[in-house]
Amino acid sequence: MPDGVVIPNDATADEVRAIPGDPWFDGFPAGVRFAVRSSGTDEDSEGHSFAGVHETQLNVGRAELLEAIVLCRRSASSDQARAYRTARQLADDDTAIGVLVQCMVPAIVSGVAFTINPITGADEIVVDAAWGLGDALVSGRVDPDEFTLSKGDHRVMVERPGARNGEGAGPTLSPDQLRELGDLLSRIEQHDDAPQDIEWCHDGRQFWIVQARPVTTAPRAELRTGNLELRSENLEPGTGTTEPRTLNPEPRTPNPETEWTRANLAEVLPDQMSPQCLDAYETMLNRGQLQFMGRLLAPFDELGPMFKAFHGRMYMNLSQMRRVASLIGAPAADLLRSLGHPEQIHPQDEIAMRAPLREILRYLPDFIRIGSLDVRAERVLQQHEARTRDTIARVSKADPRTLSDREIWDMIAWEIERGPEAIQPVFLMSGVLARESAVRKICNRVGFSYERLVYPQLAAGARSVSTQQAFDLVVLATAARHEAAAVAYLLENDGAFTDFRTALTGTGFLEKLDRFLDEYGHRGRYESDWALPRLHENPAPVLFAIREQLHGPGQDAKTIADRQTADATAAWRAFEAHLTWWQRWTILPRVRALIRRLKKQYGWREQVRSDLTRTVRYTRAYHLALADRFVERGWLDRRDDYFLLRLDEIAAVIRGVQPGPGLREIAARSASELAAEKDLQMPLLMRESELPTLLGRSGVTLEDDPDVLTGLCVSPGAAEAEVVVMRDPSEFATMRRGAILVSPATDPSWTPLFTLASGVIVEVGGMLSHASTIAREYGLPALANVKNATRILKTGDRVQLDASDGRVTRTSRK
Predict the structure, then answer these.
(1) Which of 319-333, 343-357, 710-724 has the lowest mean pLDDT?
(2) Cross-strand partners of 109
(3) SS3 for 448?
(4) Higher model confidence: residue 343 or residue 194?
(5) What is the rounded average pLDDT of the residues 754-775?
(6) Alpha carbon 257 to chain centroid distance?
């Protein structure tokens, strides 16, 4: 560290005036320059860094020292400093500040470093380096070289060259210098026993450390990753690549006008996830999305992370998605339709607001990387499925009940660490906006309905894995029809089916049911939350759907497929009739290619999601093994209390850092928080600044009770029947064959009920939603975004569902 002197915060004015004449300065030759740094009482603590708030003066001559010291001392009472204290509820009655005067290092290279990745939370070293002094770097005036180093051997894992318009054209630091720096940074972290934010420089001979402070900006969940002892050396390369961005020592407060949506998440995540899963997913999703999107995402300190929990509910960052849409030249209206917010579309949203060319060129490497993945999407899917098989083989190799606590935890931690990489194929397969926008633009140009052309093509042909589940269930019902013992049991059961295995022993139907559960038993109610049971644990919804199928003729899969093929062919003919002979040679081939790819991509997305939940089926057994042990030891009262604990809290007990009996109090506190937030009416779309006002409302009030409701057509067709209103798939026993299913949203656990329905109405969802995909491929008319449908409609009401026209008309009330 450079030599220096300290001026305490209680130094008098006379003592300060005497500093430039101190004999310490006489030991340096004339012309030596100094750095004058402020050091507040609360500064650089674990919670508050004051980075950029207090004054720093560089290249100060001895004659200018007094002025620089006074400026630093006064900065503690500046408007900026007072605002920082107010925002963090710090005392503002004592603004005295210390000052450090150090010799300036004649830096050739300077930079900042973090001993934990402050964006992703990964246990790695991130180094930003630029030629010359570090003030230009930390102020964002230069584009630095960025290096990501492994913690173990300090080798370079990722290198992103900066502008390199300074001393030389090559890297600012050599591999040997980076290893030396990495070793120094690790020693500082070990000395302070906490992740560090460090400023350093190199004078051509050695490194100098000019500042080190605890990292205060990494998200809470990410910082806990270190407690999980997750081992990155066990991971295979993924589809994306970690792209470090320029890291500011302390991010600004996220924009309160950032928009957040949960429309696309409401169908796959429960309204209140288990605290354990919510915490883990927030970390995994943000890390995975950042690795996948790279610099296409705005820095989190500008627009916020891609995923964020508000009062126990997960939201996606719509502002970040709008930014990406502008970079690819897609109108915001297409994004809003896809997510399920058509009512939020304004006229200006229909106009594609492309970002400036200079900005697009800046992100060209990320476009090329993601574009290459898009071209290789089918190969990425194959790699993902191979990785899924390998993961399941490893996780299912041992019975977790026979393992030690630490062995169980190591497996859980290994799987959690793989999460950000494993989830990236979902992001890739969900990237349909550009293709949808291109097809919609062509349809508008030739005067043909996008929905009339595209929906029949998405319905026909190969089925997604989720729709195949429905068809296979119908086949299973057909098998039951041919076995008297199975028919008798299913029709006479009370609907709980708790004794199915004993009652059906020796039947061919039970063997077929077990094969069905081997294939689809990983699906379940809100299946992303591993706190909730799967179909293989309780197949009652499947058996109920089969029983209801016995009351009438089964669906003919061939008839459905033939009708869908005919509809798709007719749509192509009608579209071609709108084209000129020249357009048939130029436009038509492109549209056919785009829609073929869209069809594949919708199916691939369902497959990837199914694969991810298949691994959850096996890792859930590890969690349950620990849960049962904690109950047996008296640390928890109930098995489900385990899922009220965050993973780092469990890790602390297993590692012996915290006592096991303390888990009961943690679980009770978590349960209390869940109960307090249970009845909150959280909006589907909001600006962050609006949330306090929205929560202040008593909830949705329906001033009238209309008989005509409107929504977004996601699967064309029409049906007339009574409705069954269900708010949760656990209410499956209320479903009736031939009814129109009305629900807030659906996920794959609702699939058995689709085999009984004549139509589907959901309150949220867009073209990418589960309800849309299954309804189209199963041949059911479906309407999404029918606001308050579960409140307005009552079970037993009769309605006419005209999905093609986007309308529901109630013809009679119960």
Answers:
(1) 343-357
(2) 131, 202
(3) coil
(4) 194
(5) 81
(6) 20
Q: Which amino acid is at 577?
A: A
Compute the distance between CA of residue 380 and CA of residue 424 in angstroms, rounded to an integer: 10
Closest CA to 412 of 639, 236, 643: 643
Residue 309 CA to its chain's centroid (Å): 10
State how beta strands 156-160 and 259-261 pair.
unpaired
CB under 8 Å to 584, separation ≥6 — which residues? 576
Residue-wise pLDDT tens digits, 372-413: 999 999 999 999 999 999 999 999 999 999 999 999 999 999
State residue 562 phi and psi, 5-degree precision.
Answer: -60, -40
Q: Name every residue whose Cβ is closer than 8 Å to that of residue 711 and which is 6 or more positions away in sequence.
A: 761, 783, 784, 785, 786, 787, 789, 806, 807, 808
- DSSP percent split of the chain into helix, strand, coil, nearest 5: 50, 15, 35
Kindly give the pairing relationship between strand 740-743 and strand 718-725. parallel
Q: For residue 730, give the nearest of 462, 382, 423, 496 by alpha carbon.
A: 496
Domain ranges of the chain: 4-103, 109-234, 435-608, 708-812
CATH assignment, 109-234: 3.30.470.20
Residue 233, pLDDT score: 29
DSSP 235: P
| Domain 708-812 top-level CATH class | alpha beta
**In this structure, CATH architecture of domain 4-103:** 2-Layer Sandwich (3.30)
User: Model confidence over 516-530: pLDDT tens digits?
Assistant: 999 999 998 888 899
Q: Which two tokens stand for residue 485?
A: 């013992």
pLDDT digits (tens, 9 = 90+) for 479-521: 999 999 999 999 998 888 999 999 999 999 999 999 999 999 9
